[in-house]
Amino acid sequence: MDKVKHSKIIILGSGPAGYTAAIYAARANLDPFLITGTNKGGQLMNTNEIENWPGDYNKISGSELMNRMYKHAIELKTKVICDTVISVNFKKKPFFLIGENNKYTADSVIIATGANPRYLGLQSESLFKGKGVSTCAVCDGFFYKNKEVAVVGGGNTAIEETLYLSNFVKKVHLIHRGINFRAEKILLDRLEKKIKSQKIIIYLNSIVKNILGNSSGVTALLIEQKNSKEKTESKIQVSGLFVAIGYTPNTNIFVNKLKMKDGYIQVTRQEHGNYTQTSIPGIFAAGDVIDHVYRQAITSSASGCMAALDSERYINSLV
Ligand code: FAD
Ligand code: NAP
User: Which of 133, 183, 178, 179 is nearest to 163 (CA)?
Assistant: First the structure.
């Protein structure tokens, strides 16, 4: 481990919130450090088509967009560091952070650590992780060309993954525990069209009870379907299961250090600025890590911008 590295401002996370915060902090001459975490580029690295990033009307892949944000941040002299913070001490001034590779101190910190995919919690799911169970169709879908797969979930991610997979797999079985999808209308319209082609089969009011397989991977799913009177079980033969049931904020290292609600970091949201301040002055948070409602690239970027402006004001108040 090198000696402790100091910056006026350290940003944790390399998703839209982190890079946007870095761009604003760098333009304010704060010479920010941005620590990428293990998932450089964040959640969008797992998506192949973004249609709602303003200005990019021709669609853009997640990795392309995130690479552009990265280049923008380093062009403005952000120091991008490949490390993951494993522990923090926010009682000390300057704030103290321990990464896997280095130790850091900072006058102000912006937490933009985003969220990670949720799993169903079945024992068989852990058994087949990487052997048929995946949370990323864009990353792993290719392995299932001309095979049958299932997707579980009912939000935007589940519908997008289903549509994406249906372009090259034999059949997608979409399993949702409710009767109404919570995805956007435009995605549901596309789903409707694809259902007609019989490449997608929908199971509503249904849950995955068990994942079956052998040493080479997943072979089938046991599904339980509830109707008004009874529960019925059925088996579907699939080679893969894509779990798309939402995300959990990456806040483990902040437990008992910052005020949180349902795992999300709480920010003050004050009427006259300082919207992104956490329970400790000087520590700000932005993006999905503070937001269980909107969770979009644009809203994450927007709060990254606010966090940088709030942090700049805080740093200026120290002199
Ligand atoms: P994230 O993108 O989650 O990034 C978090 C960052 O924090 C990562 O770089 C990670 O490595 C880092 N990190 C975590 N822990 C640590 C640590 N301890 N130390 C240092 N770094 C750490 N939104 C849209 O607007 N349009 C879309 O089309 C769209 N498509 C999507 C498709 C999929 C499959 C998914 C999953 C999401 C999609 N979203 C989309 C939502 C969007 O990706 C998120 O809202 C956005 O990425 C959140 O940005 P963020 O910067 O807050 O966090
Ligand atoms: P989400 O909106 O939270 O939806 C999660 C889905 O999984 C819900 O349908 C939920 O069912 C279901 N679910 C949750 N826990 C489950 C469990 N244990 N077993 C079975 N099903 C379960 O998550 P998301 O779809 O990943 O989206 C996350 C955020 O990213 C959203 O804000 C979304 O808008 C955004 N996003 C945007 C785009 C886009 O703009 N194109 C694309 C992808 C994601 P219930 O409905 O019954 O609760």
Answer: 183
**Global confidence as pTM:** 0.84
- Residues lining ligand 2, judged by CB closer than 6 Å? 52, 120, 152-158, 160, 177-178, 182, 244-247, 295-296
Q: How far apart are CA 225 and CA 88, in angstroms?
A: 45
* Tens digit of each residue's pLDDT (9 = 90 or more) over 264-281: 999 998 778 899 999 999
Nearest to 188 by CA among 155, 210, 216, 211: 155
Residue 272 DSSP one-character state:
T
Residue 215 tokens read as 């040493």
Provide the pairing of β-strand 247-249 with 231-237.
unpaired
* CA 103 – ligand 2 centroid, Å: 36
> In this predicted model, what pLDDT tens digit does every residue of 87-113 receive, in sequence order?
999 999 999 999 999 999 999 999 999
Q: In this structure, are residues 133 and 238 in contact, taking their beta carbons and an 8 Å threshold? A: no
Angle at 162 between CA 156 and CA 167, to 5 degrees: 130
